[in-house]
Design brief:
Strand content of chain B: under 5%
Strand order of the largest sheet of chain A: 3-2-1-4-5
CATH superfamily of the largest domain in chain A: Glutaredoxin
CATH architecture of the largest domain in chain A: 3-Layer(aba) Sandwich
Largest sheet of chain B: none
Largest sheet of chain A: 5 strands, mixed
Order of helices and strands of chain B: HHHHHH
Number of domains of chain A: 2
Helix content of chain B: 55-70%
Distance between the termini of chain A: 62 Å
Structural class of chain B: mainly alpha
Helix content of chain A: 40-55%
Oligomer: heterotrimer
Number of helices of chain A: 6
CATH topology of the largest domain in chain A: Glutaredoxin
Chains: A alpha/beta (about 190), B mainly alpha (about 150), C alpha+beta (about 650)
Number of helices of chain B: 6
Chain lengths: ~190, ~150, ~650
Amino acid sequence: MNPVWRKRALLGLPLLAAGGAGLGFLAMLRGLSTGNYNPHGVPSALLGKAPPEFTLPALAGSPQPAFGSAELRGLGRPVLVNFFASWCVPCIIEHPQLMALQRAGVPVFGVAYKDKAADALAFLARRGNPFQALAADEPGRVAIDWGVYGVPESYLLDRQGIIRWRWAGPITEDTMSAELQPLLRRYSA
Amino acid sequence: MRRLLLLAALLLAGPALALDPAEQLRDPGQEERARAIGRELRCLVCQNQSIEDSDADLARDLRRIVREQVVAGRGDAEVMDFLYARYGDFVLLRPRLSAATVLLWATPVLALGAGLLLVLAMRRRAGVAAGPQPLSPEEQARLARLERAP
Amino acid sequence: MIPEIGQFALGLALVLALALAGFGLLGAQRAEARLMALAPPLALGMLLAVLASFLCLVASFVENDTTVSTVVANSHSLKPLLYKISGTWGNHEGSMLLWVLILALCAGAVAGFGRNLPSALQARVLAVLGLVALGFLAFILATSNPFRRVWPPAPDGLGLNPVLQDPGLAFHPPLLYLGYVGFAVTFAFAVAALLEGRVDAAWGRWVRPWALAAWSFLTLGIGLGSWWAYYELGWGGYWFWDPVENASLLPWLAGCALLHSAIVVEKREALKTWTVFLALLAFALSLLGTFLVRSGVLNSVHAFASDPGRGVFILALLMFYVGGGFALFAWRAQAMTPMGVFAAVSREGALVLNNLLLCSVAAVVLVGTLYPLFADLVLGQKISVGAPFFNTATLPLAAPLIGAMALGPLLAWKRARVFPALQKLWWVALGALLAFLLCLLLAGARIGPALGFAAATWLIWGATADIAERIALFSRPRTAWARAKGLPRAAWGGALGHAGLGVTILGLAGMGLAEDKLALLKPGESAVLGGYEYRLESIADAQGANFSARRAVVQVLRNGQPVVRMEPEKRSFPLARMTTSEAAIHSTPLRDLYVVLGDEREGAVVLRIHNNPLAPWIWLGAGIMALGGGLSLSDRRTRVAAPAPKAQGVRA
């Protein structure tokens, strides 16, 4: 190669690096608007695994039974485990979707996270109770075993009881149609 | 975007500056160890702060877990593994060496190496450019004249 | 009316920037004196137009014009005047306008003070600055118009984020922007040099003052930001290796390398290609920071509210300027031939080592900052790269850098010998060793802080040794004073800059010994930390301009003698529905006493008490570094050839 061009190739390295970074940033920006790239999301470390071993007490004064890891095994159908709290504003936004799931016959297991039993019951009395079983995690330790970092947070378990999907933040109607419904169909089959 | 706002609202709703004196361990050596571990762990909800530097509820819970395990006599690696199993790579502020992070950890060596190569190449080129040049015809003629002169 | 005038002025500035870029480049290309002569007046016109626009925005904030959406979103009638004014740039739109204003000020300075520049070079530099201004003015007008009206007018503004309502933060962005934008001038000089195909000693002399000024302002800006984090965030932390902090550190590192390599260009006509590259790089990294902060790709506390649309626009600008600059570099820089050849052991050699290490540190910070983004994008893996990584990965590079910093200035140009220089430093090395051992002895086997004290001693005494050597203090003490007066200010500035870093490291080492304690106290009770007794006297309500607060009164005693009364607060801002904590800090040369007020329960309050040895020196050191830069800038030799050392007057 001609020495001038060899020199140009070396001097062109910064341009190459800048161009590569630029393309990367463009992909990130596109991903931001389509939702494929989210700098704030934290993936679950439990995907593809069984939930951690735990037992939780029932929510005091609630007719619903409590549940632990034993109750999540061998149900033979996909279930949703939902961590919520009465003090959590996004949980209110999510609630109608949980009610819809219950009406559709999907078992939803609820965990009241760092909540007083009376407050949680009042919350459910006012907005409806979508839960088949309801446990209380007032210290919030079991939630940490699940890798929960904020409420609401939901986990989808397949028929074998393996965690297949985790959603941090409220399940909106968009989330239902774009993510949860297709997954439910896939894991019900 | 809306979810982000909601998340922000959720975070702000928590009590500001929830400090609990009971949190600190009585044994200064154990407390020091717990802090060293805590500084390696990311507070997941507060972006780029370690759990030792954050007021968030979750950070406080994680601090407590770290301290319980330190008191229970677990080793540093065991405590980190405990949280790693729950929150994955994201919780570690010092990424573990893996196929995905090997470039990151190699950066200091790569940068220094590439710089050294560049300096060596520059010196060689500059050395060639400034090395002894053959005499020009005028200079040769002048040299010959000087040599002939008695 | 005022917002419309502001908008009009902004449009006018855009037209002037376009004319400046077009006529300047064309005139220089065709060597037409008449076209080139248009550049300075156009640059001044652009400055006036942007200034008018900026003042209109300030006026809208001061009179709380609630028909302007930026005002509504970021201000409030009850806010103190200072924060109404600083609120002008406490938001995305206004801060972009400030950015362009500072760019226009720099262009104005090159136009006004650069009369001794060759006219083609001046025209090209101004044209490139006009081109940069053009892009950002278009960005403001297209996506972030600060003068957008809302109708009907809102009853009042929504208030400024209370965390940002702070004097330190009022001046942090302008200083940072002075730094970032200052590198736009070195960028313009680099592009002009590439267009002309010539880099010589004179070019080095013109670029260096700009690099110095930009670097000094950036030092102040970063220092102020770090100080703000220390006293406002209430955790005693001062540097988090947050991506946004790193984004300001990167141009600082590149700028630091630039102002050292420009010395080599000036004195020895070597390292020319490299210096041009650094001049391009410093601005590229400044723009990268702007992009990262404003595009929303980052996971950071400091980031502005994000908008991918704006992100794409800034990315396009970034790629145009950076890509254009580097493309020109790839094409034209091969023609620059090195002139001088030098030995490895020489002043030039030491400066090359400085550049090598500084750029390696910059590479680590850059890769560490961007790695999580690209790991997520390319590998789909979420990883965190935080303080432990940066500390581990930069320390091995910073240590030899600090080692060489004291040695370098003692080496002669062209060819030097290490041992004579080391001989002059033996007492410095002894001092560093002593500091190391003393710290180990007193602080009980803590290697990190001890190494920090050693490094600080090495740097501060090394700088002293440098000056002592230059004025021959020990060999001919009688005439030393006369020589000290005759010593060029650049020599003093360099020594001061190096010593300033030593002072900062002294503070960092001290903070390595910091301790803190949580205490639950009832009035009358006290807690003890680091030999000080903190007695809670009372806790009561207090009222501020737009917040209400709980305020504790803490009496600090040492050996039973009162030292100071401290009043930490917890403020709640009803409008922003936020609470902030105001730490009470008592600074002394030896330590900061730092008290944070926490929750109250059953008549008792939680206090977090910090004892931070030597903490104030961290930021004092940054001030000393900037002062060193300023002193070098005021050197007669810099001033004679420089386009505009007085351009630092933009501070006003």
